[in-house]
Write a structure and sequence with these properties.
148 residues, alpha+beta, 5-stranded antiparallel β-sheet, 5 helices, 5 strands, 11% strand, globular
């Protein structure tokens, strides 16, 4: 079942809202712990670029994902700081963006067109972000005039 227009708008609004960066690894540990203990929430695990999931993850699937993504982030982002995970709230999160350490672009700064995260954890059913955030047809035609 595809997301409705209302759900799509809600997901995009949440995606574009303000986020706080997880700066230190111990803060990431705390965030993961919070997710694991919030049994009242259902989480969607979305690998951006793949088809958005239509079902939320089980507690075991969420735990497995958090363990694997944590390992990947610490290996691929070999720094003494985290800085690649952003949450709408540390105490009661409902939306988390996880950026690919090998494709950061200006994810931690300001840009009109920041890179998409590699993964999204959300309590709202996700939509196809690459399609939803793609330039409009008129903008693509304008770009084609420049590069043709």
């Amino acid at each position: 079942m595809a997301a409705t227009t209302i759900e799509s708008a809600e997901f995009l609004d949440l995606f574009r809202d303000r986020f706080r960066g997880v700066l230190r690894w111990h803060e990431l540990d705390s965030l993961w712990s919070t997710l694991r203990t919030q049994s009242r929430k259902s989480w969607f695990i979305y690998a951006v670029g793949s088809a958005p999931p239509i079902h939320s993850a089980s507690a075991a699937e969420l735990d497995r994902f958090l363990t694997k993504i944590d390992s990947l982030l610490r290996k691929e982002h070999d720094e003494d700081y985290c800085g690649v995970v952003y949450a709408d709230s540390f105490d009661d999160p409902e939306f988390i963006k996880i950026f690919d350490p090998n494709n950061l672009g200006v994810s931690c700064g300001f840009s009109d067109n920041p890179p998409l995260p590699g993964w999204v954890l959300s309590t709202t059913a996700p939509i196809d972000l690459p399609m939803a955030t793609a330039p409009t047809a008129s903008r693509r035609r304008w770009w084609n005039k420049i590069f043709s």
